[in-house]
What does this fold into?
Amino acid sequence: MKQNDAIETVKQNTYVRYNMEDGVWDILLGFGMVFLALCLQYNMLSFFGLFAVFAPMITRILKRKYVYPRIGVVLFRKYPKAHRPRIIMGSIFVIIISFIGVAFTLYTKASPIITFAYSYPWGFIILAILIAGGIMQDNKFYLYAFMMCIPIYFTHLFNTNTYYRSITVILLVVLLICMEKIVKKGTVKKTIQIKQRYARFEHDLVIVLSVIGGIALYFNMKNVSLANQLRDFGLTHLSIVIGNFVAFLLLVIGMAFTSFRYILYGFLLSAIVFIPYLIADEKANLWHFLLSLGVFIISIGITVLMRFIKKYPVLEVTNETK
It folds into this structure.
């Protein structure tokens, strides 16, 4: 029993080292906040979805250049060749839908009318897919749910513009069918069993948040007074709601991996979204505080990465073939 506990401890420490000790996620989080601040400043919030396309590329580049040569990388089973086209197709979909939404918004020039006639059933489908992904612990469901969120990102268009809704839904269905065919050609096998075991809390968190979101969505659809008040508060103070939600996720990650850095990020972000409400001009200050926090997190991430580089020298690979 003690031997098994020791093995489990080694596995957990290995997983934490691969994800938290190198500072790559800190750098990525900082760049995300800087990009969000610039989008807010120049009224281009719709383009923030493009960060989801470039974020995996940044992570992969940093990991391959600084992390893997020092502590190695273990893949119990290789990804199939079909995995890369699936990611590329999903990224192209995000870009196309974002540009279609911006184009329709500029073309119609209509004032945004908040209506949720089609968003409610679509939202329940998204939450069901998230719950299925959490139960099956399969990340592809999260990818599908994320892609389904892109059309309703433009809430006014999705609920009032038939052409936009039809185009986006048809493109989404065609893309999901093509992606599933790609998966069947090359079966997607699980990688890194250590990660699957110790990242279970991520799937459990998705299930809990999806259930809470489904209950809130149902009460909102039924026009319950408390739900309406919370919805109106969320729409009026959107920065507080989203900021504290992200801060909550950072706190959960920090406590799960016993990382003081992420707990600090969560508290700072939660405090920053409240600061503009204490100052006269809200919009003129929110982006500035987010930009400062992003630069601060990037500097911490770079510091952690430099310490990681000094701590773990590049592994020497001996060539045993003669």
